[in-house]
């Protein structure tokens, strides 16, 4: 290398350092992630999952698994497609710094990112990764405390254009006959997502009146069920189903966290049933679930007051879904519930990371 070329390289490096220092001063969220989250803690689970899903013998993957997992975190934080992820890693210095890449380093392409996520999906690794970070939270002193709050939210997926006969076959758990001989068509058809109705409050009309009935909007996709702890508002348990699945039945399917230091459980009326009340009583939980309005009768005043008090606490779970949808743009781009579970699971891990950063920042400032 000539002296002039060496000087040019040094100057370019200085310019990059100056730009990175400016990004730090402006508040680089990814830099905060690097300082606060120990991504190396995920390495054992990542390596185990990759070995399980990749049946071909032969050395380690060409890119470090922790680096690739960080790419999934970037994707989830910014709601990026694989192609857009590849472009922005090459384009943004903040992304490169987070990944530990230099300007001359090779960047994983979109296909590599897709294959990495597919291997983790096939291995069912997202739950292990979630539990790994939950253990990190507990070791940092963030134990599940003060009871727990349950709720669910709808997560949109690309709409499917199916005939009535095809819809009937899917609801019955069968593959439509016309699809069985067309592998390419079958791979693009989501057989697990379902249609449901999303109810929303009717808006005030021009004359100032409000319609007596709420609006019912058709919705296609999946449903994310979560249980958060009341104290720190971390997601502790979660589950993914199709959009038409009942909220209440999930309570008895491992959604309650028995490690919480308090036994109270808050949830809306969708979780109020005799089966759920009996289950919670048997398992040692104290129900704070909203009571339903009596059929064709006015709601008793004492129940109204009780529900209002419960709503103050229960509403905290809405902030979780608002963060995932407004900040992360939570949306299922993929086909099938296995991939949807991976997508929603990653969103839950990243939400907990963001919450961890927030609480650690408050603790440092105190």
Distance separating the two termini: 52 Å
Outline the low-pLDDT stretches: none
Q: How much strand content do the residues show? A: 5-15%
Number of helices: 15
Please state the CA-atom Rg, rounded to the nearest Å.
24 Å
Shape: globular
- Write down the oligomeric state: single chain
Mean pLDDT across the residues is 88
Number of strands: 6
Chart the SSEs and their pairings.
Layout: H1 3-26, H2 29-36, H3 43-53, H4 65-78, H5 82-91, H6 93-99, H7 110-122, H8 126-139, E1 148-156, H9 164-171, H10 177-180, H11 183-187, E2 194-200, E3 215-229, E4 235-242, E5 264-267, H12 274-283, E6 286-289, H13 301-314, H14 316-327, H15 337-365
Parallel strand pairs: 1-5, 5-6
Antiparallel strand pairs: 1-3, 2-3, 3-4
Helix pairs in contact: 2-6, 3-7, 4-15, 5-6, 5-7, 7-15, 8-15
Model description:
- With 366 residues, this protein is an alpha/beta fold.
- Helix content is 50%, strand content 13%.
- The protein has 15 helices and six strands.
Which terms would index this structure?
6-stranded mixed β-sheet, globular, 6 strands, 50% helix, 366 residues, 15 helices, 13% strand, alpha/beta
In short:
With 366 residues, the protein is α/β, with parallel strands linked by helices. It has 15 helices and six strands.
